[in-house]
Design a protein that fits this description.
The structure is a single chain. The chain has 19 helices and 21 strands. It is α+β, with helices and mostly antiparallel strands. It has a domain of 256 residues. The strands form 5 sheets. A 7-stranded antiparallel β-sheet has the order 1-20-19-15-14-9-8.
């Protein structure tokens, strides 16, 4: 991939990081270093990714946890492999049962939005199939951070405080007391630079490492989770946990101007990014016509999202084929709907979310694109007593409309926002990329891919570039860094433009690419405390 290696026109003025032995890029320095430690101890990129992911559950619990879900794209042995480790709804829940209780929509917090966690199974599955080091060694850094404590970084502290203030208002029942005991032990959110520890979290990680996650799904930890659920009329059962297995899936792709862009197939929303790129590639994007580029990107994304929100769900329940949505003929149909003025698509409002993303690569040619999430920040507000496990609220994305493709059903997987990305060229790996953040993720994928391929920005500059986010109807939010002449041009084209108060809603990304000479080049997100750890 050709890019301007030493040119970054954006305010952070960071430069990409180069290395030849290995690289880990993620949103927290301590987690990135945990992954790099595995590479230096003889592990591969897969070991590094697992170590980083486990550490992130400790050092960035504001966005992910052991009780969340995970997806991965792994380049190993000359092939790209996809792992879907998202859990289904409990088998004992149903729309009928909720209706009898007078529930008309799934709440953000409590047991109703809790689905089976997939994160521990993802670590064990990746380690078993591709790792070189034992899981007990790989999880050591995360266990140490949880046991001994670590100082909070500025961005994590900001979102921790924000979550605490919100939870103090909305989490009223006794089932939420364990969240406050775990994450606000002093009766407040910890400050930046303050030490926080969770010995229960450390014990849980140790058990997962020693049993290869068996204890989480069929052992002592599973029993603690289910006992907690039963106490507060939750639907999660021992059968739900014991029957869960991650799925190896075939990644899906489109060719965008000579590069193959890969995503995990549904139930993930990576399909939205691919549909948008498939539409966009029919237009010539010219560097001197930046206003037109913004308009075309936004319109392509809106059309893709309308289809994604209508059709994406557990693939067992989809009534359309992925290959039809990604066909050239369908892209051309959608492309013809784009004109000089903003479209008004039929789509619901897109809420925000919390997620962590990481990319890892080693000198053996292995590369990993990995993402995990509790969905909304800390998740459901439920922490399993004495374990440090924050349970996700992923079930919130289910519809209670029986006619909707993504309607709630027992044992069904919901529309999933977290998506890892990967780029190849003529069958060879270029590298992993990702932009986390709820429904911003496919929008971020579209923008960073276009930045690198259309405008030859290096990975760091591609991440530094100011972003936009389509919200609903014709409403688009843009970062303050978007020039005023572009904003005014979009307004003239009929877009309802809002200038964001801060950049927290625009996702946080990481990129690692491999050059033709084998050298790795990485970029990390300027909107958080990210780091590219390399050697």
């Amino acid at each position: 991939m050709k890019f301007h290696a030493l040119h970054n026109p954006y305010p952070s003025q960071r430069m990409p990081v180069y290395a030849k032995n290995g690289m880990v890029a993620t949103s927290h320095p301590l987690a990135a270093q945990a992954g790099l430690d595995m590479l230096k101890k003889g592990g591969n990129a897969i070991d590094a990714a697992i170590a980083t992911a486990a550490a992130l559950t400790v050092v960035e619990p504001t966005s992910n946890g052991i009780g969340g879900d995970a997806f991965a794209l792994v380049w190993c042995n000359g092939k790209l492999h996809g792992l879907n480790s998202s859990g289904p709804a409990p088998k004992g829940i149903s729309i009928e049962k909720l209706e009898k209780k007078g529930i008309k929509e799934i709440p953000h917090y409590g047991w109703l939005p809790v689905t089976v966690p997939g994160v521990p199974a993802a670590w064990a599955e990746l380690s078993e199939r591709f790792g070189k080091l034992p899981l007990t060694k790989v999880l050591e850094p995360a266990i140490r951070y949880a046991e001994e404590g670590y100082p909070l970084s500025p961005t994590v502290s900001k979102y921790w405080k924000k979550a605490y203030q919100h939870y103090r208002r909305v989490l009223q029942g006794p089932e939420f007391a364990h969240w406050f005991e775990t994450f606000a032990p002093e009766g407040r959110a910890p400050e930046a630079g303050e030490i926080w520890r969770s010995r229960g979290h450390a014990e849980t990680l140790q058990s997962i490492a020693e049993t290869k996650a068996h204890s989480f799904y069929q052992g002592e930890i599973a029993e603690k989770i289910v006992a907690f659920a039963k106490k507060y009329e939750g639907y999660l059962s021992l059968e739900d946990l014991a029957s869960f297995q991650p799925e190896w899936v075939n990644p899906i792709s489109v060719n965008y101007r000579g590069y193959d862009i890969w995503e995990i197939p549904p139930n993930g929303q990576g399909l939205v990014a691919l549909m948008a790129l498939n539409i966009l590639k029919g237009f010539e994007l010219i560097e001197k016509e930046v206003e037109r580029t913004y308009h075309l990107q936004i319109e392509a994304l809106k059309l893709a999202f309308v289809d994604g929100k209508k059709y994406i769900t557990d693939p067992k329940y989809m009534n359309v084929k992925v290959e039809d949505l990604l066909s050239e003929s369908y892209a051309e149909i959608r492309r013809k709907q784009i004109g000089e003025q903003a479209l008004l698509p039929e789509a619901g409002k897109l809420p925000s979310g919390g997620t962590v993303y990481l990319a890892a690569a080693d000198c053996e040619g292995n590369m990993v694109s990995y993402i995990q999430s509790n969905f909304h920040g800390f998740g459901s507000g439920l922490v399993v007593p004495s374990t440090g496990i924050s349970l996700q609220n992923r079930g919130l994305t289910f519809s209670l409309d029986r006619n909707h493709a993504n309607c709630l059903q027992p044992g069904k997987k919901t529309y999933h926002t977290i998506i890892p990305g990967f780029i190849t060229n003529e069958g060879q790996p270029v590298g992993p990329f990702g932009v986390m953040g709820g429904y911003m993720q496919p929008q971020g994928h579209l923008q960073v891919v276009s930045n690198m391929i259309d405008f030859h920005l290096n990975p760091q500059a591609a991440l530094d570039a100011p972003r936009w986010q389509w919200l609903e109807d014709k409403r688009v939010e843009v970062e303050r860094g978007v020039p005023d002449h572009i904003v005014q041009s979009l307004i003239r084209r009929g877009h309802d433009i809002r200038i964001a108060a801060d950049n927290g809603a625009f996702g946080r990304g990481q990129i690692i690419l491999k050059q033709d000479n084998g050298v790795l080049v990485g970029g990390t997100e300027p909107r958080t405390d990210g780091e590219v750890a390399a050697w």
